């Protein structure tokens, strides 16, 4: 099983990655992307009251890099090498459409599943650009995500989930 992380940083995310690896070390591999931070200047859409002279503002911008590319490459490579019979992609990122389409079109024996975390009473749905290539799809609600949290104590280790979680 491969997990692709979008480069989340911070102590809490480091603990999640460490605990995921520790819980099932023979079955889980973690592939990390990264988040690049920048502070570009952006044009305003509407003037700001009492600051109509401002035309540009500096903003924080965070861009995920490599996660979707790594996932797409592994999805395609695994299909061509016969590494799996079914792939379950947990994403709603339409950058993955071409990889899903390639596997579906050229490997008819491989089943593709799609799950996507969608907030509770949100208008969003799983992307049809992705789901049209999947054999099945399922939105993950906050209830599903809560039920999938790590246990309080990681089996076969001294690691514990922080109380703040």
Describe the structure.
It holds the Pfam family NYN. InterPro entries: NYN. It comes from Orrella daihaiensis. This is NYN domain-containing protein. The structure is a single chain. The protein is an alpha/beta fold and about 160 residues long. It has a single domain, classed as Rossmann fold (3-Layer(aba) Sandwich). The protein has five helices and nine strands, in the order βαβββββαβαβαβα. It has helices at about 10-25, 65-80, 95-105, 130, 140-145; strands at about 1-5, 30, 35-40, 40-45, 55-60, 60-65, 85-90, 110-115, 135-140. The protein has a three-stranded parallel β-sheet. Strands 1-2 form a two-stranded parallel ribbon. A two-stranded antiparallel ribbon has the order 3-6. Strand 8 (about 110-115), helix 4 and strand 9 (about 135-140) form a beta-alpha-beta unit. The protein is extended, with a radius of gyration of 20 Å. The two termini are about 25 Å apart.
């Amino acid at each position: 099983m491969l997990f692709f992380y979008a480069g989340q940083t911070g102590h809490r995310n480091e603990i999640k990655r460490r605990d995921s690896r520790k819980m099932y070390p023979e079955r889980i591999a973690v592939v990390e992307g990264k988040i690049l931070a920048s502070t570009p200047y952006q044009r305003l859409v509407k003037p700001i009251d009492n600051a109509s002279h401002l035309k540009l503002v500096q903003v924080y911008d965070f861009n995920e890099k490599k996660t979707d590319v790594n996932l797409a490459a592994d999805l395609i490579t695994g299909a061509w090498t016969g590494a799996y019979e079914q792939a379950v992609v947990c994403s709603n990122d339409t950058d993955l459409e071409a990889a899903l389409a390639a596997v579906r079109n050229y490997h008819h024996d491989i089943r593709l599943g799609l799950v996507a975390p969608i907030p509770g009473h949100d208008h969003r749905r799983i992307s049809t650009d992705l789901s049209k290539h999947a054999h099945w799809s399922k939105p993950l609600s906050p209830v599903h995500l809560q039920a999938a949290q790590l246990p309080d104590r990681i089996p076969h280790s001294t690691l514990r989930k922080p109380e703040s979680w």
